[in-house]
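Cross-posting from the modeling subforum.

Setting up a comparison between two proteins and wanted a second pair of eyes on the formatting. Protein 1 (sequence, then structure tokens):
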Amino acid sequence: MQDKFQGREPKYYDIFTGLFVAILIISEITSTKIVSLGFIQTAGAAVLFPISYIFSDILTEVYGYARARRVMWIGFASLVLLSAVLLIVEYLPPSPSWHNQAAYDAILGFVPRISLASVIAYWAGGFANDLVLAKMKLLTKGKYLWTRTVGSTVVGQAVDTFLFIGIAFYGVLPNAVILQIIFSFYLFKCGYEVVATPITYFVVNNLKKAEGLDVFDYNTNFNPFKFKVENKVSVE
């Protein structure tokens, strides 16, 4: 083991952080619409949100659990800020010349509940995903990337989907519809991960070469409430 990462900042970590947060925020807004894809009913966020787990896998695989955890907390804060601002704007008195308050309430006014559901689900599911991937990387000694990207998604998305759909739509939609959305959304997101595996391989392998590192979390503190990144990491 040697510490190749100490004393320098990663080249592309900030880019992946920015894109990850953007995906989360866009997904919050698009979650307010339920779409029908043939016989499947699911949240509009299905278009983009599954990519967030691919980003999470890439961050954990390349930069390690501690840096992925930092991104998770940045995303958490961003979702809280989004919800707070939309709620404040909703209750500010509308201008007499503006007649779209009902439309705002119907769509963006629902976002604070969506955001609450997403914050809880994202926190629990995201950390479950990253923890499983980091631990599996140690068990497989860095081999068989597909087993940990898919395995972590199966666990993380199960937690995320159940909490998010349940909290966001309980009492709004019939329970039978909620269960259908949970099931279809979960299968869709897991399938998304499987189909995207070649892309994940391509990005991970090239990013490891570009950064010159491949982090193994042998000495990492897996406490999800930490924000600070340890200075020393294990690189193989």
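Protein 2 (same layout):
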Amino acid sequence: MFALVLLAPCACASGDLRIGVFGLFHPQRLVVSSLPAQPVMVTMGSRRFVLREGQSASLVREGSQVRIQIHEESFLAAEVNVADPWGKGTDFQLSLPGKITRRFRGRLDVRCLAEELAPVVEMNLETAVASAVAAESAPGASLEALKAQAVATRSYYLASPRRHRNFDFCDTTHCQFLRGTPDSLPAQAAAATRGMVLMYEGAVIPALFTGSCGGRTRTLAEVRLAPSGYPYFSVPCDFCRQHAAHWSARLDREEAAALASHSEGDRLRLGRILGWDAVPGNNYELIGEGEVVRVEGSGQGHGVGLCQLGAAGMAGQGFGFQAILAHYYPNTVLGTPDH
């Protein structure tokens, strides 16, 4: 069982997070649209325009500036800001034409960085938690599994150092996936666990989690990840052992040599060359076949911390989120910052 303790507030517990979005697409053009009953204010230096229901503004990179097309007018600006008419966060839609459209809640800043547009959404911590839970969790996960993911996500956000130069986190596997405005169940999970974090020896841990461990979670040393303040333990995961997807790959000996130590860094480097589906997880065996090596594995991800597939299975068997967290993060306590 977890002990529930009151903690001193974390440094950013009551603040907002700045999250870079769409970075994988290296956008050159974006479209910002208002939503029903949600007028938005678009600010470019001293100029301000209101987008009402269904209206849009187009943003295009032009050199080191942003060309904005709005209400049949065109302007160049160093930065474009989107908020509600009072300068606060609001719901809006952001699109990369032909590739992706998402609805976000917060404030949007767009400027040019490294020859591309860099959209950054500033959002409340709890909105970020719910949005990440919506994107990260196993399909069909129940409320208790989502609550466990919410606590892990919140702990990660609060305990991790800023991971990018121009914003705090991104919406990729480098940090955490992010869905726009979260669905109702992830939002309920975030609200039900509001403020709750995982603690070890008096400090919030930057909780790691994985898609499916394949039957046993790993320690940091096993996958050659740097030590952290929390000594991740290897724990059995029976549901994942029975239900994780199995996969195989055939690599040449040089490619397979990079996998011999089960280094997560080496696996990711190989993934950048061969594609992320080539070796999707760190639970595998190498089987020699002359100049070709067969890789047989199951599961997805580094295998450290909470197993999302296993957590969904535990919740389906009647375990609550506290028991799920206690299983995957032994010797931690569940705490609530004292605001």
